């Protein structure tokens, strides 16, 4: 669509006839993400607060629809974990670039790689990773503001060095895997942890507790305290899809705590975009 036609559509956003307004808005939305720069430009030039508000709503709607499409495509692809985390972050930071996230993560990897000893014993490798990750780089649990939405957005966690159990585990795991360590996520009830697993060695890592190393019997005790029956998936690596779903559920809780029902419903829609059926919350 030419700029002249777009301008004509935007000029109708002050229309009082709701039927005409709805038709105009749907036409703009149908143009997809390519129309966003123009809408943002028009917002900056507007003096009519009603039109500005309607432009803001249109921009958000188009961005949200684009995110849903990207998440759907992500699920149909190889479900790369970092890409999934990037998509979640674009809900709140639509201009965030995946390439920037990769650079930030690469810096964390490089800082750890400088001190890493690939010939060391598996436990010593993790202890060394812990030392750099927590003591030198200062990553830590955000216990003071546990339900902040930022704890579930990887760009915020990489910047502030504070996160929740899942986001800290994801950064730790991505770096560990880049170091060729057999580290994966484990989707425990109420807690996301990591497992170091080879044919000869298996132990668990609680990144939220500064990389505490523990065993299968400790998970047994944890489940016992929760009065839960042990299941195989409580001890084994989970798929990236389950990890991303867990991050989304954390976001839903965060926005519920903030009293923002619109964002709660939108994250639920995104969650169900990558689910086989409608998830009960």
Which SSEs are present, and which pair or pack?
Elements: H1 3-11, H2 18-30, H3 36-45, H4 49-76, H5 81-90, H6 98-113, H7 122-136, E1 140-141, H8 154-160, E2 162-163, H9 165-178, E3 183-188, E4 191-197, E5 202-206, E6 212-214, H10 216-225, H11 240-257, H12 261-273
Parallel strand pairs: 1-2
Antiparallel strand pairs: 3-4, 4-5, 5-6
Helix pairs in contact: 2-4, 3-4, 4-5, 4-12, 5-11, 6-9, 11-12
Characteristic terms for this protein:
281 residues, alpha+beta, single chain, elongated, 2 domains, 9% strand, two-stranded parallel sheet
Structure write-up:
With 281 residues, the chain is an alpha+beta fold. The chain folds into 2 domains: 3-76, no CATH class; 81-273, C8orf32 fold (Roll). The chain has helices at 3-11, 18-30, 36-45, 49-76, 81-90, 98-113, 122-136, 154-160, 165-178, 216-225, 240-257, 261-273, and strands spanning 140-141, 162-163, 183-188, 191-197, 202-206, 212-214. A hairpin with a 5-residue loop joins strand 5 (202-206) and strand 6 (212-214). Helix 2 packs across helix 4 (49-76), helix 4 packs parallel to helix 12 and helix 11 (240-257) runs antiparallel to helix 12 (261-273). The longest helix has 28 residues, at 49-76. It is elongated and about 70 Å long. The model has no long low-confidence stretch (mean pLDDT 93).
